[in-house]
Structure formats: structure tokens, C-alpha cells
Inverse folding.
């Protein structure tokens, strides 16, 4: 059977978690469609989006799983931790409770995700005047966990792309380090490299 050619170098599976209402779906909407809405439609179970991005000249197909923050969906959403390569843990800078819950979310990650999963902490709604959690509080917590911290606004778009690209780059670099052959996952067998080189140059990504 002919092997289907991939038009990307890596598939990167990301999971977005955090309390209900912190803006997980909004971050994803901003990143994938560059849009925002003030209406709150709470996610039921799990949803996902695909977006291709070029990172360090590699075409990365991001498969981003948007989980429901509501407690009643916890059993369903936990099932998705295992397959995640990167996890974006989001709290709301205007909501103290969502910040306090970061520790519980971290425990969930430890118990359910792969030990080498890449993680970042995101304080969302940085545009809001109703701030309850300072930037330095977010930074300190991220430092305690030894992970990168971003303050974002899905409303204005501030640092949204930076956060997604940062975690994707770290996953990509890890995948490249872990690969036994040291070649790209989509690299064709040696004999066909020459024939496909031209195609590769003009292939579409992003
Ligand atoms: P669940 O699906 O229930 O887990 O919630 P969620 O985390 O997906 O929250 P969602 O993205 O649906 O956003 C909740 C509310 O916060 C919506 O009314 C959004 O408009 C608002 N919101 C999201 N991000 C921002 C932001 O960056 N700034 C401001 N001001 N509001 C935001
Ligand atoms: Mg949602």
C-alpha cells in the first residue's frame, strides 16, 4: 500500500485546562481564527481545533484539545491528559479562585499526564481592570513549578500567539531530541529523498 505523504513535519497535541470561565475556548478562538466574543458558551466535554504553524522552518500541525472546566466533565477530560504532549494551564487574572485551583490542576497533570509533558502557566484576561492576581504572583507560581509563564488577553490578542508557539516549540524540540534516527518524522526513506525534494520545497503549510 502506498504511504500517504504528509504535508507537515510534526503533529503536536496540546491540551488546554483550567477552571470554567477562565477563557480557554476564547484563547483558542483568538489563536485559530483571530476572533473574540464576550458571550460565554461553556464547553461541553471536549472540543478541538487544528492549526498549522511554521516553527523554526518546520511545519507543525497543532491538534489543540479544549477541555470543559466544569467539574461534572472532569472524568471525560482526564482521559485526554495521557495523549497530550503539551499542557496549557490557564487561570483568570480577575478570579482568585481560579488561581488557587492551579495547584489542583497541577496535581491532575502529575496523576494523569505523561511525566515528560511540556507545561506552561497562563494568566488570561490581562486586559481587564478587575485584576485580582498580580503579574508577579503568576510568575512566582510558575517559577515554583519550574514552568514558563504568560499573561494573555484573548480579548486583545496580547501574548496569545506567543504562548501557543512557545509550548509548541518546546514540544517540537523534545520530539526531535527523542527521535531515534535524528531525522524528521515525515522524512521519506533514503531512496526517495531526491524525488520528493522539489515537492517538499513547494508544499503548503500554514
Ligand atoms: P469553560 O468552557 O466553561 O471551561 O470556560 P472557558 O475557560 O472556555 O471560558 P470562555 O473562553 O468561554 O470565556 C469565558 C468568558 O470570559 C467569556 O464571556 C469570554 O468573553 C470572557 N473572556 C475570555 N477571555 C477573555 C479575556 O482575555 N479578556 C476578557 N476581558 N474577557 C475574556
Ligand atoms: Mg470553553
Amino acid at each position: 500500500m502506498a504511504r500517504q505523504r504528509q504535508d507537515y513535519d510534526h503533529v503536536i497535541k496540546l491540551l488546554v485546562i483550567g477552571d470554567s470561565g477562565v477563557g480557554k475556548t476564547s484563547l483558542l478562538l483568538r489563536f485559530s481564527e483571530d476572533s473574540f466574543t464576550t458571550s460565554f458558551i461553556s464547553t461541553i466535554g471536549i472540543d478541538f481545533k487544528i492549526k498549522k504553524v511554521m516553527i523554526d522552518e518546520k511545519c507543525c500541525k497543532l491538534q489543540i484539545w479544549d477541555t470543559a472546566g466544569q467539574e461534572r466533565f472532569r472524568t471525560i477530560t482526564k482521559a485526554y491528559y495521557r495523549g497530550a504532549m503539551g499542557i496549557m494551564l490557564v487561570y483568570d487574572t480577575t478570579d482568585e479562585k481560579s488561581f488557587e485551583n492551579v495547584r489542583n490542576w497541577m496535581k491532575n497533570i502529575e496523576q494523569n499526564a505523561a511525566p515528560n509533558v511540556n507545561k506552561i502557566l497562563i494568566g488570561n484576561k490581562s486586559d481587564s481592570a478587575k485584576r485580582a492576581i498580580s503579574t508577579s504572583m503568576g510568575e512566582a507560581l510558575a517559577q515554583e513549578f519550574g514552568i514558563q509563564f504568560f499573561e494573555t488577553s484573548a480579548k486583545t490578542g496580547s501574548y496569545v500567539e506567543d504562548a501557543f508557539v512557545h509550548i509548541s516549540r518546546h514540544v517540537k524540540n523534545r520530539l526531535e531530541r527523542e527521535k531515534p534516527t535524528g531525522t524528521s518524522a515525515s522524512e521519506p526513506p533514503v531512496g526517495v529523498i531526491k524525488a520528493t525534494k522539489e515537492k517538499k520545497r513547494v508544499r503548503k503549510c500554514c
Summary: Residues 182-202 have pLDDT under 50 and may be disordered.
